[in-house]
Amino acid sequence: MKIIPIPCAFDNFAYLLICESTSQAAVIDPTEAYPVWREVEAAGVQLTSVLCTHHHQDHISGLGDLIAEQPDLQVYGFAADKNRISGMTHPLADGDLVLIGELQGKVIHTPGHTTGSVCYHVNSALFTGDTVFGGGCGRLFEGTAAEMFVSINERIGLLPDTTSFYFGHEYTEHNLLFAAQLEPENSAIRARLEKVRRIKTDGGHSSPSTLAEERATNPFFRSGEKDIRKNFITVGLGADDAQIFALVREARNSF
Questions:
Q1: Is residue 100 part of a domain?
Q2: Same domain membership, residue 72 and residue 147
Q3: pLDDT tens readout for residues 58-92
Q4: Has 58 been annotated as catalytic?
Q5: Residue 141 contacts by C-beta under 8 Å, 6 or more apart in sequence?
Q6: Does residue 121 have an active-site annotation?
Q7: Among the options 58, 94, 96, 241, which is catalytic?
Q8: Which of 10, 44, 164, 172 could anchor a disulfide with 134, C-beta 3.0 to 4.6 Å?
């Protein structure tokens, strides 16, 4: 398996997922068509499918051009978004499997950012769309904080710590600045922020991260930590982790 990040638009990522045994490939969240075709041609692979994490146009605006160029593309997305992802050929439910050559991935329904958000778990990689970012999570446009808490902590959070997270936007530096404000004594956040700044200075990207890295630095995996909870002491000591998560999300909206 090979994964090629494809920077698109201002700060989006699409990803080319390649089965090296068959040279078949899928693109995850094609914001633009041209950068996708450029990577497909450079890699010498056959693009067979498109995996959509959700319906927002900044993630699928290149889909129409891809289909126009290759009408037999298989287009995957959550079934409830059938009318919001034009050209969808394979409506999905939670737990469904997707095949890219000999690669097999599993669909994880992760409502919160939108009601139809999904992540794709392929081998040790997770394509998170706008559910989890480096050091953060997506805004709640359609779902609730309670849904997003479950999606992140009780669904994605059950995966192995070595799982690589390939997220939809380059927001990591700003997210970590917010995380450092919540946990100023967290050395892992400071170290990761320095690393991300070095990577960006060298022209690289902060994607992928790992689940272990997110557990150590991402406040949306850490709402049970006392140093985060004390930022919201006015809600009382009886607030559960999901309630703290919601307050962290509200605070991030205005950061």
A1: no
A2: no
A3: 999 999 999 999 999 999 999 999 999 999 999 99
A4: yes
A5: 113, 114
A6: no
A7: 58
A8: 172
